[in-house]
Amino acid sequence: DFVMTQSPDSLAVSLGERATINCKSSQSVLYDSNNKNYLAWYQQKPGQPPKLLFYWASTRESGVPDRFSGSGSGTDFTLTISGLQAEDVAVYYCQEYYSTALTFGGGTKLEIK
Amino acid sequence: EVQLVESGGGLVQPGGSLRLSCAASGFSFSTYWMSWVRQAPGKGLEWVANIKGDGSQMNYADSVKGRFTISRDNTKNSLYLEMNSLRAEDTAMYFCAKTPRDSRYSHFDYWGQGNLVTVSS
Q1: In this complex, which of B45, B46, B106 lies closest to A97 when CB atoms are compared?
Q2: Per-run averaged pLDDT (10 residues), chain B, 121 residues
């Protein structure tokens, strides 16, 4: 079974600074036949459903600000927010879609320092 | 505009049953796999079940297999989740989620607002 481990569990960053969230999968999510990483990132604000940020690990969803970036391959992935803004306060989740289990990471809570 | 609106949640006793519905609009419903994803209070996200666009394939998380049934009615643009033998650990917000691909191996591009199911005596 896939296990998606996010770190840190919570993070406090000053406005305008960089926030980095990590996601590690227990198995590679890179599909050799198409060279795509089956990994997505979501943002969930309090009382709201998750919102898709990235898919294929680094393809930004339409409308997502370019201060957000996704990177990584295989088993190690990173979500970076450059120039943190107040509206970025949320819980961030990674999700693998390589397996039939469609497993989410445990989430990283991002707050303002 | 894509819209997903869940209904049917509420309070149910352990061992009881409940049926969730999700009304979809703004896209060609029968084209896409659809899923239910749940979130226990204060916890993370857990995929529950998905169903192919034509309703011919269904898959379930081990935690609900044999107790929950996902279905869809493409004539009504609606997704359903029949939940039986409910347990306290099934208490969660249940989200209806759309995939952008004709594949079970997919992320979710649109989510409903969620519907709360509480299992308690």
Answers
A1: B106
A2: 97 98 98 97 98 97 98 98 98 98 94 98 96
> Which of B38, B97, B119, B47 has the alpha carbon at shortest distance from A95?
B47
Burial of B110 (0-12, 13-18, 19+ CB in 10 A): buried
Dist. CA A17–CA B49, nearest whole Å: 39
Burial B2-26 (b: 16+ CB within 10 A, else e): eebebebbeebeeeeebebbbbbee
Report strand pairing: B18-25 vs B3-7.
antiparallel
pLDDT at position B100 is: 95
CB contact under 8 A, A102 and B35: yes
Q: Quote the mean pLDDT of chain A.
A: 97
**Quick one: closest CA in B to A48, which residue?**
B113
Q: What tens digit of pLDDT does each residue of A34-70 get?
A: 999 999 999 999 999 999 999 999 999 999 999 999 9
Q: Which two tokens stand for residue A10?
A: 């919570």
Establish if B5 touches chain A: CB-CB under 8 angstroms: no
Q: What's the distance, CA B100 to chain centroid? A: 16
Return the closest-CA partner of residue A108 out of A5, A7, A27: A7
Q: Kindly state the percentage of chain A with pLDDT values over 90.
A: 99
Q: Which of residues 54-83 of A touch B (CB under 8 A)?
A: 55, 61
Taking an 8 Å cut-off on Cβ atoms, the answer to whether B47 and A102 are in contact is yes
Check B44 against A107: CB less than 8 A apart.
Answer: yes
